[in-house]
Amino acid sequence: MSFNLKKQYSLETALSDLDKDAADATxxxxxxxxxxxxxxxxxxxxxxxxDVNDEHRAWMALNRFYDxxxxxxxxGWNIDGSRAAPxxxxxxxxxxxxxxKLTAVGAVLLLCAIHGISLYLDNHQHLxxxxxxxxxxxxxxxxxxxxxALLLHADGVHxxxxxxxxxxLGSVICSIAGPGRGLFLIFSSGAAGNLLNAFMQRQVHLSIxxxxxxMGAVGILTAWQIxxxxxxxxxxxxxxxxxxxxxxxLGAGAxxxxxFSGGENTDVSAHAFGFMAxxxxxxxxxxxxxxxxxxxxxxxxxxxxxxxxxFFFMITAISIFLAWITR
Length: 327
Prior knowledge:
This protein has helices at residues 11-14, 20-32, 55-68, 98-120, 124-131, 135-138, 145-148, 156-177, 179-201, 211-228, 247-259, 268-294, 298-325; strands spanning 38-42, 45-49, 133-134, 206-207, 230-233, 239-242. By secondary structure, it is mainly α. The strands form three sheets. A two-stranded antiparallel sheet has the order 1-2. A two-stranded antiparallel ribbon has the order 3-4. Strand 5 (230-233) and strand 6 form a beta hairpin. 39% of the residues are buried. This is Membrane associated serine protease, rhomboid family.
């Protein structure tokens, strides 16, 4: 069978500057893995656009297709006439873009600003009492505390530790999911962890800090790695293949939570619930996203992704604001 297709050495080139036959073949491969594809025509060439969440699966699917059909590589020569060595396989660890970095830096600056202003105004202890995670008050209906507690820290050491973790994990997550969706996942995981912890404690239990959100971020990345090890095919019939190695990220994530939950004054249960919330929320979010993409036309996907990301950014910002001003 002829596909008029050449093997590429990066996902970017595999989706760019294609003729109609190559675009049809590439899109068919991606759609067989339940990956939505948007078409963009420019200068007589077709560019295929996919969600950043699907990039790893797309690259793996295309490489399998190249190998199974003995499709030869394109080019293969340097400008000076020497043979070009093909780059290695695409890493399972996501690349970090400037939007992800900027979003993580913004979140960290917010935490630092709140801590600094509270110390300057000499109301730090008052804020901890009125906005910290207290099971007693949360169970009486003050649910805003599950969000505001994530923004408060006991001291500089507590703040710096959580900020460093958020810079690293937040940059990755906001690069994978987009700035708005990434922030939403991190904060919602932390808030859900605090809520579950309050229901478990059911007593006068006061805690603060973004560490629950940090553990939620670990859960998000764990779920992302597990998701990449689950292959689904929808043609000719639906099939799901789960690699045994899918359990490895779960073990690694749990080990990280245990490693960073052994310090003094550490709320271990909040860390554990944050981690579990991150996993569950990420899978629910991924499922909802896939269902939404199925009901969208190809040409609307790339535009809608931008609007959806902005929507979740606004939801996160408004939720934090409302939680802070209400009790």
